[in-house]
């Protein structure tokens, strides 16, 4: 199976720090990949490079898109921003959703930024919120939702545009274990529906439920294991 996302020699250097050091990684369509490693090992840097949030200081990231392969590393800021808006979904601990907007507006805005008219965007957003168990909370300001409810809004927003590839950074980090498990259920449900997930986590319980676990140490991949039961166990 050809990869959805492919990194080669991916490196990120800051003055005095090699945050990522020559990572090769292929992410296959439809798999869930947990990225683990000690604090400072380069997990978030890898996620940001794979998702075109940061540009690498060396190496390549190639994303298979309906229009053909795209060299994400070579795109300028505006092109990467457009790629993220149109092709990728994000579930981060904070920073992407706006407290002063309602749950519905936070989801609908992802479509409106892609040119979908407000009425159609609101209708699709409402459908996603209902599918994620938030019916009745559409008009609640995000700041008045619980952490678990806010993550459901983030998961709705990540999928409403039709993104096939989802990136999550510690999506359960701020949640109690039961709420965290429910949020993970929803992310894995997206994978069961054919999406692909790359999730940075410190939580061994989260990693254990993913198809594959990539472990970083000092900016390098030191282990890459697939669950025995998952399809195409080749790594
Ligand atoms: N903007 C930056 N400027 C300088 N150094 C940075 C920057 N961002 C990250 N680093 C450094 O790069 C290394 C990797 O950081 P990164 O955040 O990717 O690690 P991480 O594994 O995600 O850590 P954590 O689990 O604590 O979130 C660390 O040494 C970090 O201090």
Largest sheet: 6 strands, mixed
CATH class: Alpha Beta
Identify the overall geometry.
globular
CATH H-level superfamily: P-loop containing nucleotide triphosphate hydrolases
* Helix content bin: 25-40%
Could you tell me the mean pLDDT?
A: 93
Q: Widest sheet: strand order? A: 6-7-8-3-9-10
Q: Tell me the strand percentage band.
A: 25-35%
Q: What's the N-to-C terminus distance?
A: 13 Å
Q: Tally the structural domains.
A: 1
Give me the secondary-structure category. Answer: alpha/beta
In N-to-C order, the SSE pattern is EEEHEEHEHHHEHEHEE
CATH names the topology as Rossmann fold
Ligands, ions, cofactors: adenosine-5'-triphosphate
- Count of DSSP-assigned helices: 7
Number of strands: 10
Low-confidence residue ranges:
231-235
What does the model show?
This protein is α/β, with parallel strands linked by helices and 235 residues long. The protein has a single domain, classed as P-loop containing nucleotide triphosphate hydrolases (Rossmann fold, 3-Layer(aba) Sandwich), CATH 3.40.50. Helices cover 33% and strands 29% of the residues. It contains 7 helices and 10 strands. The strands form 2 sheets. It has a 6-stranded mixed β-sheet, with helices on both faces. The chain has a 4-stranded antiparallel β-sheet with strand order 2-1-4-5, covered by helices on one side. A hairpin with a 2-residue loop joins strand 4 and strand 5 (68-71). The chain is globular, with a radius of gyration of 17 Å. The two termini are 13 Å apart. Adenosine-5'-triphosphate binds at residues 14, 17, 19, 37, 39-45.
